[in-house]
Amino acid sequence: MKAFDYHRPAAVGEAAALLATLADSRPLAGGMTLLPTLKLRLAEAPALIDLSRLSEARGIKQDGDALAVGAMTCHADVAASPLAKALIPGLAQLAGSIGDPAVRNRGTIGGSLANNDPSADYPAAVLALGAVIVTSRREIPADDYFVGLFETALEPDEIILAVRLPVPRAAGYAKLRNPASRFPTVGVFVADTSAGVRVAANGFALGVARLPEFESALANHFAPDAVAGIHVDAEAFSSDIHAEAAYKAHLVGVMARRAVSTALELRGPP
């Protein structure tokens, strides 16, 4: 790891100013991805801006018909939150399945969304729920936020403060977890929302994406068998040492059915 300057601002404005004035500086949330990347010299940062003192970017609360989760809230806190379990149990379940205890107690929802790893769990939930990413400058709908592989709509000096997730009628997540990395090979999040059924999957070559055919089928009949005959083009995936593209494409349908089953179980009796 190369030497870098370290800053720990106490206010959002100060953090944004540092990011704007210190060329190539990087914000530091949980550090679960950034620090190993720097250690392996796969990336360089002349300065790190630690966001851990930004109290306004922490916490979980109800915001009208949505659940608002502060960007610096760690996965373990989302998983354990009584409010998250009550309003969006599928989200709490997803958070509890991320990585291992060390990752869940350090990694943050904001850090995951800012990094936008194609195999990360949260992007699928945020996109499927039609969430809004609240930043230091604006509010970005999830449909406009995810741009591509490790790319988002964030500006270099823009900081995620919170994620506002509309409370759905039902939501669930299923994934095939890589036994070594614990990242999902493919994961699917389904949500029956007031705006209609939304389905998003991670593991695509270019990152998270919605699945319109699955959404249409589930809008007509929200049950696992509704998506049983739908196939995803393998060209949207890349093969790697863990799975061929065709296998990943097949997994989308399998995980979608399981996610719907989970959503129905978490919703309980009608």
TrEMBL record:
Entries under Pfam families matching the protein: FAD_binding_5 (PF00941)
Keyword Magnesium: no
UniProt xrefs under InterPro entries: CO_DH_flav_C (IPR005107), CO_DH_flav_C_dom_sf (IPR036683), Diverse_Substr_Oxidored (IPR051312), FAD-bd_PCMH (IPR016166), FAD-bd_PCMH-like_sf (IPR036318), FAD-bd_PCMH_sub1 (IPR016167), FAD-bd_PCMH_sub2 (IPR016169), Mopterin_DH_FAD-bd (IPR002346)
FAD-binding PCMH-type domain: residues covered: 1-170
Keywords: FAD, Flavoprotein, Oxidoreductase
SMART domains reported in the protein's UniProt record: CO_deh_flav_C
UniProt-recorded Gene Ontology molecular function terms: FAD binding; oxidoreductase activity
Protein name per the record: Carbon monoxide dehydrogenase
